[in-house]
Structure prediction request, 92 residues.
Amino acid sequence: MTLETSWRALYERAMLELRPDELRKSIEAALSAIEARIQLVVASEMGRDQNAGELQALADAQQSLRNLQRLECGNAVVGNLPTEDSFQGKAS
Prediction:
């Protein structure tokens, strides 16, 4: 299984996970694989046009997993993104 297909398999597994105790681990594994693939695609020498579709798919999958994580696992988000709690009390 290549990195390109492994992130997709991990993404699908996380999105279909029904056991709450396994969901967080599945999401974290998928997000890690997606981040690794993003880094590989961005660093590759292929043209941007060729990578645009995959980068969009990666971004969409990443956002979907973060939404699932927020809804099903509480406000904690894996990675460097702030949680909703970190914005409370700050002026816009």
Q: What stands out?
A: Helices lie at 3-16, 20-43, 48-73.
